Amino acid sequence: MQELSNSGPRLLLVRIRVRSALILSIDPGNSGALAFMTTRDLTLIDLYSMPLYDSQSTGHTRNFIDGSVIAQLVDAYRPACVILERVASRPAQGVAGVFAFGRGVGVIEGVMQALEIPINYVAPQVWKRYHGLIKQSKSKSLEMARQLYPEAELHLKKHEGRAEAILIGIWKVQKWRELYEG
Predict the structure, then answer these.
(1) What are the domain boundaries of the chain?
(2) Which of 19, 133, 151, 158 has a CA that sits 20 to 30 A from residue 144's CA?
(3) Domain 22-181: which topology?
(4) For the whole model, what pTM was predicted?
(5) What pLDDT, in 10s, does the model give residues 95-141?
(6) What's the rounded Cα separation, in Å, for the pair 180 and 52?
(7) Beta strand pairing status for 44-49 and 52-55?
């Protein structure tokens, strides 16, 4: 992979890819999801709940993000880039929960780095503001995604992560269009 030293060439690379490329948008966390979509017409190619595996190393079962399954999916689809929600801990979260969440994000980042897939980050407030979802429940995200993609498997409440992954991808493509198409 060619090393790019400043933002000028990197923007050019993204501009070339955005015309007709496949992207992967990710809502991280155990209840998150992965959405593969095209940049040309926002066709939803595939949608997956976050792959998990069980571990019983501490005497009880915990779920962890399965990096090997993510790697297989990313290698099969070869997206031009990944849009990953940049999340932070909240005051009410416990230390173990924050650590586990950070570990999961690290797994996702490690997979993308190993497969040389560029990562773009977006704060939840940014994409939610774009969609009018600030201070709205996740069920509103699910409702919006259902309206945009009625054929998608978004039938259950537990599909909120899938909905948010879709909306993250839509936000990024629309921002690219504003940047490059005026």
Answers:
(1) 22-181
(2) 19
(3) Nucleotidyltransferase; domain 5 (3.30.420)
(4) 0.84
(5) 766 677 778 899 999 999 999 999 999 999 999 999 999 999 999 99
(6) 37
(7) unpaired
